[in-house]
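Query form — protein ADP-ribosylglycohydrolase

QUESTION: What is the three-dimensional structure of this chain?
INPUT:
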Amino acid sequence: MLKPDTTQLVNTTLHDRILGTLVGSAVGDAVGLYTEFLTAKRAEAEYPGRRFSLSPPTPFARDMHRLKHQLGDWTDDTDHALLILLSFLHGSLTPDDVAARLRVWVNQGLRALDSLPLGLGATVGAIVHDPAYLDNPVAAALKVWRKGNCNVAPNGSVMRTHPLGVVGLFTEEVEAMDNAARLSAITHVDPRCVVSCMIVTALVRGLIRGEVTTEAHIDGVIDRAVERYNCAPGPFQDALAVDVDEMSLGRGELRKYTHATSLATLDLDVEGIGYVYKALGSALLLLRQAMRRVAEARSSLAAKAVLFEPLITDLVMAGGDADTNACVAGALLGAYVGYTALPAHWRDGLRHGTWLTGKGEAVCRVLGVVEGGYEREEDTAVDGGREMVSADNQERRWMELQARMAAENTAYLQKQKEKEAVKALKTRWLRW
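ANSWER: The structure tokens for ADP-ribosylglycohydrolase are given below.
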């Protein structure tokens, strides 16, 4: 009997999981946009059917936040993850290179797609706008963190570092963790942010490699990340240039979120919705739930094929910072179930989905998972292969966005007015 080509079989699985990670996170982000900043009660009122589609697209709830976006858009979460991915494809992945790309994004948006910087967070904005940011990104981040009494731990770095688990697929776990810590520290130096990035990155790597398949494996990654963070001196702590004592990590708070028993216990839609441990905790809870369902199923493949949509839907219906929570969860679930198990009406409805999938394929070629090699593309450059936008043109772009929003809102109100007129006419005829 001929033996199968196991190398090809392994590569096919890795290929599926890599694309599952990158597209799954973007899909989670895009679906999460539907309920971002809403309470769970408001989300239920706006989407009583608890069903979302990107192809054909479910209409957004009507408010100024969602009006800025087009149906099928992802948000700044995926944009920032792409800065890391594009840096890798350009062959220049370092903290300084990603910091330079982040500065461009804050001022001009994602140049590769000629998109505006929608969704800029207060913490990232304050840090990246520091005149000395590019000279020493970590110092700028530390300054803002200390100004916040060393208690500023938003989710702006954990939403972007999951691609490091992909590109670090064939490196040691500790190296992937260290890279995640370094990339977190260019904006988020709080220990909760750093260790969250380390955990998510190591989990993505382990899930793709098939080394993380049980909840015990998840717990092992968490323990190793904490141990690596607490080691002294560690390479990432050298990069942070602070005393280990100043950056000590309490395990009780971490365990509370990483071992949450339900989404309700995470209070995702109440005070501090952007807290990094809420994003981490909700993503780990969904991954644990997925593993339990697979363990209980008669067919693991059949179970994985239907996991992604209901779990992500439950998460986004919980409201809060739903796009970030679902972006992180989407990366982990996508790595677990693979690209082919993502719901087609989500996966195929991403506005820039074909471009994103192409970048994922490029990463697979660089890693040697797919044959053919890779020639660096112009849009992987810091400027996205385009000229930088002048101040006048940038102002024009914002004005065009405002005009589009106004036109869409006017059209919506006109349709509502027409519906009310028809309803009133029917009522009069019934009375007559």
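ADDITIONAL NOTE: The domain at 20-389 is CATH 1.10.4080.10 (ADP-ribosylglycohydrolase fold).
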